[in-house]
User: Fold Methyl-accepting chemotaxis protein from Halapricum desulfuricans.
Amino acid sequence: MSGPGTGKNQAESGSTSILSRIVPDVVRRRYTLKFALVVAIMGVTIGVLGATATGVVSQQVEQNVEEEYRNLASQQANTLETWIERNSISVTLASKNDALSNTEPGARFDIRSELATTDGNVYGVNAIYLLNVSDSGTRVVASPQLIADRQLNQTRRAWVGEAPFDAIDVMDVHVTTVHRIGDMPVVAFVSPVTGHPDRYLVMEYSITDLTMSLDTDTEDRVTMVVNDEGTIQATNDGDRIPGRDQYGNGTAMRPVRLASELDGTDQKAGVIPNMAPDETILNEEYTVGYAPAKVSNVNLNWTVLVHEPRSNVFGFMLAISRWGKIATVGGILLVGLFGTAIGYNTTRDINRLRHWAHRMREGDLETTKRTTRIDAIGELYDGFEDMRRSLRQQIREVERARKEAEVSRAEAMRMNEYLQQKAEEYSRTMRRCADGDLTQRLEPDGESDSMDRIATSFNEMLAELERATGQLKRFAIEVENTGELLQTSSDSVRVASGHVADSVQRIADDADEQKEQLQEISREIDDLAAAYETLAEHGDDDVQEHGERLDEIAARISEIATLSEETLAESGIVAGAAEEQAAELTEISDRARDLTQYARPLRDALDEFETETDTDLYADD
Assistant:
């Protein structure tokens, strides 16, 4: 279903189509001819329209100027927002550094080194410091510019302690008002440190760069940045001191209040065409454009105000009104001549702008164009110039970032080559140690703390291993020597025990043989004694005496036989003990032989390891 807007668009398209068929292509292609045609039509109708046309034109010019000032205020606000956003991103990224949350002893020096590196890498930083906020106060943890471990209220940055630290979210940045450090006006950007709830990173920026970026194209135009309390934060007016002077009171604060009302609306800027004179701003009626500065994750209450005398801003409108009446009276010819002049100037400026845009598209950012026009075309000149400066600045920043990245990449490659070379050197030394040369050592060179710690730990391990190897070598030699000596002694004792057993066996055999002989003799004596007894019974005294002697000899021989039996029994016991001792010595000899067999391979294996104690070890052998 078509709405009113659709019908309007269709009507406009139809009118354009009709005009395109009526107006020749030669006129449509040339802006000068089209403008001349319009001037001719205006010349015909100027006498009829008269004052009405002049009033309409004056009103339109006034609207254009007001729009220009809105755009100008919006552009200046964009410049301020870009400056604040860039610095906010810098402090936010820097606060994510894990080193800033380190609380180990001696970490302050590492933190100071990180802050110094950040200070050197971030453009425009006046001072950088890490704060610790607690119930006992706000203390400076580390800073390249401030003395560490001092309370913040003992420094010239006591005003930073007024920041609402508890209300700053982890992704938010707090921007302070402008304060002066000596003669330098600065702004502090505060961001919480990731990983430590009580620490905050502060980066101070001088507003000099911001002041230089404010609009200075027109001498009478004054641009100021004012907070809600009316304190001037930045200005291109050299007579006003940022951070100390007040913008104005009463009626002069009206644009600041109107700017705060734009929050939450689609309108980015506003303009007040006519403001009464104020000695703190301008001593004549002036026009002011205003725009609030809005940056995500930053609670900012700053307003950009662009001032210019009303006579300068609306001078062209008054001239149109005056000369419009003269044109009405003067006639079509004067209007035609005036229109032609305007058309020529406009065409010339448009052609210059087109040529300038072509040059910038081809990469020429050094060529610049100037104009004294303050209308929309003058605004285009200003916009092209701002765009040229912005592009050139961005290209320079990109080039600087590229060079810094190349330097960082070169340093990383150098460190990588060093680590590879050092790793290969350590690998060769460790391989020689694995092959048995325990005299090798890794040499720390102080280039990398990690590699130096590896070298120190490895050298200590080798020293312990070398001492343990030397002790094992001495133990293996002692075991081998003791085993050989024990084996030799046991063999000697075993042989001696064998000899003893053989001797005892021979004694036992002789005793047994003597026992049999004595028994034989005893039997013969018994028989002889019996014979003598028989003779003695027949009365022979000599026979009886010899019989008694024989009995006595038989008794002695019986005692000798008994003693031989006891000797034979004791010889058996001695022979059994000798055999048991020989068996035990044989077992000891076998164990000594096994111990020697095990100790010799152990010593041969340990001999494969070369240590500093080898010479002293084998000198004892």
About this structure: Residues 449-537 form the longest helix (89 residues). The chain has 14 helices and eleven strands. The first strand starts at residue 125 and ends at 134. The CA atoms of residues 152 and 561 lie 122 Å apart.
